[in-house]
TrEMBL record:
SUPFAM superfamilies attached to this UniProt entry: YgfY-like (SSF109910)
The species this protein was found in: Halomonas urmiana
Family annotation (InterPro entries): SDH, SDH_sf, SdhE_FAD_assembly_factor
Annotated keywords: Chaperone, Cytoplasm
Family: Belongs to the SdhE FAD assembly factor family.
Official protein name in the record: FAD assembly factor SdhE
PANTHER family given in the database record: FAD ASSEMBLY FACTOR SDHE (PTHR39585:SF1)
Length: 97
């Protein structure tokens, strides 16, 4: 395994760990998005996702439940991408998280 792939694997594990929030609703949105869409995002959106998962659970919940949108445009964009993905994807296999 070369250094690039091992760094990528380590980053992915870190992102997965931080995406497991312990709040079922957030897990159902963040983990499938990470697993299915993160790799296809451009660098700016990947950076926005990494910054997003450092936010407090209460803020994430409000944003991802569409009660409010983040003020920061990059954060708002990634939240909307996550919400749109969840609304257009059948995530039944994640119900047991």
């Amino acid at each position: 395994m070369n250094d690039d792939s091992s760094l990528e694997a380590a980053l992915r594990k870190r992102l997965y760990w931080h995406s497991r929030r312990g709040m079922w609703e957030l897990d159902l949105l963040l983990i499938p998005f990470l697993e299915q869409r993160y790799g296809d995002l451009d660098e700016a959106d990947q950076a926005a996702f990494r910054a997003l998962i450092d936010e407090e659970d209460q803020d994430l919940f409000v944003w991802l439940m569409r009660r409010e949108w983040p003020e920061d445009p990059a954060r708002r964009r990634i939240v909307k991408l996550i919400v749109e993905y969840a609304e257009t994807t059948d995530n039944d296999h994640y119900r047991n998280l």
